[in-house]
## 1
Amino acid sequence: MSWSLTEYQVGALSSSALHLILLPTEKCNFRCSYCYEDFVAGAMRSDVIQGIRALIDARIGGLETLSISWFGGEPLLAYKTIIDIQTFAQETCRAHGVTLTGSVTSNAYLLSSDRHEELSGLGINIFQISLDGDERVHDTTRILANGKSTFAKIWFNLEEIHSRSIGDAVCLLRLHLTNRNFDSLQRLCEKINACYANDQRFRVLVKLIDDYGGSGSERASDLIDPNGEERSAYLMTLLKPQLKWQQETHPISTVCYAARANSWIIRADGRLGKCTVALTDERNTIGQLLPNGELALDEERWRLWIEPTIKGDLKGMACPWQALPVEQEAASGRKIPLRVI
């Protein structure tokens, strides 16, 4: 089914859908070699948690859907915060007849089967988990902060989830393709086929590594595979059909979340943003969440992120970060006119 440009725009600008990307902590137990995050901010403050609950409460009456995506850092390091907010969101949505969906982007080192079950029961329906190859290769790039390996623990957690067969939340295994791990990913695909082909909760997505800056031990740009598109497509052919991740067909799903008017990143310190891969870009700080649930917006910056959607610029709607103009003012001297909404 094809969609018109107008339908894409209406879906992305609608006020009936609220999407919150929450960072309950910006610390991480991993030190992936190509990571772009700086881990400066710690756990989410109590006034920010209060503000999120107030925001949901204030907006719920006008919503058809509420979607909460948990990001980090490693979000499961702040498990109690996730349970607190997710429980409140579920209870509020049920009371108002609003559909709740949720996702967690996690390295899965702390994703026990008990946690998977508890979070699934609170409306989390997708767990996105990154793997960089089979054990030998994965453990060269996705390591603990203390330098130890991670694959065995992650795979144990996945096996435990698989063995319990509880709930229908999807474990989306995101395979990172680099210029070094093609052979390893082929072996991993065979392992995934053997272990999870008969479990409808497991899906696979191949993602080419990209360079988002940061201070990891090696530059992500050095890992980009020039033959990535072809190799990615080939890896997908190795997977059993039921394991392949199928994107939603609704027009809102094809527009980057950062280009949607009612999609907000709320960082651990309450800063508002639009893009999870531009966390260190000053243009991505668009305001502050207040404890009463109101948003103090830098409206000029906010509009730059959704301008491609307003104009119907499909390329900009796919990645508004790439469409942002260079900001002329020095960040330290810029006067921010805030508007509270």
## 2
Amino acid sequence: MTFIHDDFLLESKAARRLYHTYAAHQPIIDYHCHLPPRDVAEDRRFANLFEIWLEGDHYKWRAMRASGVSERYCTGDAQPYEKFEAWANTVPSCLRNPLYHWTHLELKRYFGIDDLLDERTADSVWARANEQLKSPKLSAKGILGKFCVKAVCTTDDPADPLTHHETISASGLPTKVYPTFRADRVMDPHQPDVFNAWVDKLAATANVHIARLTDLLDALRKRHQAFHDIGGRLSDHGLDQCYAADCTEDEAKSIFLKARGGASATPEEREAFASYMMVFFGHLDADKGWTKQLHLGARRNASTRAFKTLGRDTGYDSIGDLPQVEALGRYLDRLDQENSLPKTIVYNLNPRDNYAFATMIGNFQDGSAPGKIQFGSGWWFLDQKEAMEWQLNALSNNGLLAHFVGMLTDSRSFMSYPRHEYFRRVLCNLLGREMENGELPNDEKMIGGLVEKVCFKNAERHFGLKL
């Protein structure tokens, strides 16, 4: 039997029936990812396995460095095959790391390759995969069709134009590709060089002269509307912690002018300004019926040396250890008191916070929509089998799994769509085990209906995307 077989991860008869009957054929709504919209607009063709698989993949870079591989073969100037060969040599050391599962699931689903990747099979895998990449079925658009992706929500800065999204929208692509509004740089008045460069870019894109705080808010409203007009229905914030300090309009104006003048906001001023902006963004999302996403708890750019030489998003981030609950609760409560709490998904990166987040969402369900406030799927370091089960258990024990909107890729790679399959297998295995143990009714139709909702139907209902 090959390593990746039909019943991979499915330990019981009930799990296998649930997966093959109710989960395997479900379409995908990838409601949070980092795919470049330009690649879709231009229907990018990938020249080789490095381009589609290793380019920009910080998960693999971390593993390679840990295995003693020189940076030249991660982000450096080595040739594409040399980088692939270095990865192939690393894979056997990844046993029990989710990369081992992902690697072989992806080789199987994209190229039909069952070989275990290592230094002996590298040449053959490279040649066979590259030959298949010549087919339009494995172009950027071809992949979306291959995996029955109904919608993709990319992550987009409001200071960037939506040109590529406009091209995609006009192309008639069956997969809908929508932008997600992520304005994290507005939280940086403590770094006036970064902040002002971003504000100037936003001003140019929105065609709004930004001299005062009211100008900034007008520009952001205009961009938020532009995202909405092209079909966007989600926003996202990647934060160390939720911002929830008190800040008056006059205080926010003063901090904005200070930063625009080139002076750094103090830590207290930065928190106050960011808190003011988060309330503003909450109102924008609530007014439009959007879903807000809060990604909380990453410890980013831990290595100063690597940040200076390689920049951000190169594999030097980790789980943070900051307290999350008080600020998150204050933020949600502030919007709730103002009748401006949008549909919201909260994601934690520290598993310590699983039960805190799973119970926090229950405080703000208001009966207006099933699962209005969501405890998000396992994120980043937690999007693997063990932590997926932790998240499912915490949600089930403290809320309603039946209304969960399910999995996403959160990926920059077009090779990541099997992560939905991986999650679905984990979900079905968990439910099937409990059916056979008598912890759930032995009612396949009822449990299968739950599987269908979590895999696709809940997301289809919840986000209001035009499919």
## 3
Amino acid sequence: MEPILKIEDLRTYFFTGEGVARAVDGVSINVGKNRTIGLVGESGCGKSVTALSILRLIPSPPGRIIGGKITLSGREIVSLPEVELRDIRGRLASMIFQEPMTSLNPVFTIGGQIMEAVRVHTGMGKGEAREIALEYLAKVGIPAPHQRMGQYPHQLSGGMKQRVMIAMALCLKPNLLIADEPTTALDVTIQAGILRLIKELQAESGTAVLLITHDLGIVAEMADEVAVMYAGQVVESGPCLSIFTSFLHPYTEGLFKSLPGRAERGRRLHTIAGTVPSATRFPPGCRFHTRCPLVIEQCRTEEPPLVEVKKGHGCACWVRCGEGVNRGTGDAERVRCGDTGKGEAGKGA
């Protein structure tokens, strides 16, 4: 079956005064119907730029998609005229943005903004659109939705704005939902309800979900597959269970080791040495080699390809892939069971 979203060798660069920032540099991801892909990695590794590239929302200048293909529900996106993109955004693909404070128009009521999205894409009358807006505001846990419909964004808390954005993204039942940190600023109870709502949408409409988050507990709860990004590239990908129990790449291992847990109470948390390199100055060879405890000479000079080590599980590492090592630890199983040291919040649902 053809995936709803197919990204092939995507390259999105920013042309700045300090040089060319290769924010996304050769990313390939497929998301099938009724499937969820978890996209994880440190801040600055290219996750959000990948998401914005799908809907062609990269600010230009300085950003530009310079290579690769993006196919959404059989339509090629990269070369599509802007007028046709407007029909796709919201109807075929919706996005929950990371920052709700700047994603809502401050001069329109929240009800008006949701209704406008519904009416533009469906041709519904004002009354029908209002009923849908009220229904989804209630579904995302907004109290007194009839009252909130007439309020402006500045009258809502950050968490409520986030829920309004989620309602707007879900109300058209898109083929693809891009969720960029969808549970930011939400308490545990509301977070669980939102994740449950996304699952219900998938069951009802077969929606494909690209989930971007730092919370590995949410990934364990929601994702069917996982792609780990570092320095603009996917360094490991595969089925969620395989990644969580048999991760291969040293960077993925570092992410799991940095998770707090009950066994580590009172101890200093593990950290990955160094920082993500600047996108204008990526090191030669493997981009993780300056921080990697397993580095060998080949890592410093040759960029490792993403190769399939076992069925559906790929990794880009000269050391691990060359040896065919499967590295699972108790850390991964702990996350799978929801124990990330955050109590109920760590369960992600």
## 4
Amino acid sequence: MSGLSELKRGYEERTQRSRAMFERAKNVEPAGVSYRNRYFEPYPFFVKESKGANLIDLDGNVYTDYWCAHMAMILGHAHPAVMQAIKLQAEKGWHHGFVHELEVAHSEAITRNVPSAELVRHASSGSEANFFAVRLARTFTQRAKVAKFEGGWQGAYDPLHLAIKPPFDRPVSGGITKGSQEDTVVVPFNDFEGFKGRIKKEQLACVILEPILFAGGCIPAEREFVKALREYCNETDTLLIFDEIITGFRLGLSGAQGYYKVEPDLTVLGKIVGGGFPIGVICGRREVMEHMDHTKYAGLQYAYHGNTFSGNAITLAAGVAAINELEHSPVYEHIDRLGEMAREEMNQIFTDAEFPAQAVGVGSMFCIHMTKNKPIKDTRGYEHCDQAQCKKLFRFLLENGIVILLPETLHGGVSYAHTEEDINQLANTLKEYVGFKI
């Protein structure tokens, strides 16, 4: 193998069925995919089966999966306990359209583990949960302004769908009006003085923080920064919202708020708490959450929440089963150890080879940044990363049966199904790459 062109040919030769399916998909889906993050050149492989730490495509090729279904599959794909819960619930009905016992059981599991959670409401996605959390914050405070951090990913809700990657002043999508974002104040991450300078004398309804900028490069917030934000919110009667859609039940049962020992007023959860099914959760302080209670509040004091599939029975059955496994199995000991092992191995390889890259992250999460510039404290570090090199590494890993997304920003995580052998495979493949001149 002498270069990237041969890697590309090798992939195409092994994935003929995926290529044919992609041609079909382009006839009925824009770009031939259901989400832009799932596209990569020359075309994505199509998954036939997922089990444990592996994905199997239409041609029978097996890939070690570090994307973990957008970080949702902390137990690995098709975990037996979750599978059993799904089967049992399916026999009883998969969506009732009325309240049911699993709503209570799932909410109890959330309040049992998440320090800030006193009351819980369910939604169908993380984007939707962030939307309802912001609406609730505005209702409770009777203010409009929202502070959102550079590099934070809060989903597709218009007021939060901005300043995700540099340049932060460039629109992320068409169709988003200036009016929908005029009450959003974009603030710097890990820079409290910069935060105060941006908000000036704004009366904020809330500050929404992703404690680990996962899509932004798996960059942890500094502990003193998080504490300073909590103090600011206390002093100004502003609500602090933690977007824990990634970190919730991944950084331990208590998530990022347990890790940082700082309690927000509201927490948004998703992914893991649905056991791999679509879900969003809004939870937090009783006095705030009660403004969703139509029996207590009305008019401008009431924050509407609800949708057709909130509290879906299959989702909550899977979620309760997944949380039960997290509570009673040594999941975090295993995934955190492998996550640390992966980062240490990768950084040692990069150092030994004098290769301009570094692995960052915390717990079971990691991101490979193609730069030696340290420290990486915020998403502005992307301006110094070699994205072309990143795409080459993505292609090399893919050719060797390893998948980490996205091609230009390689970030991923470890599941309970991963093993030391998987980490060794990743390390050995990286060793080969850094000595392989493309």
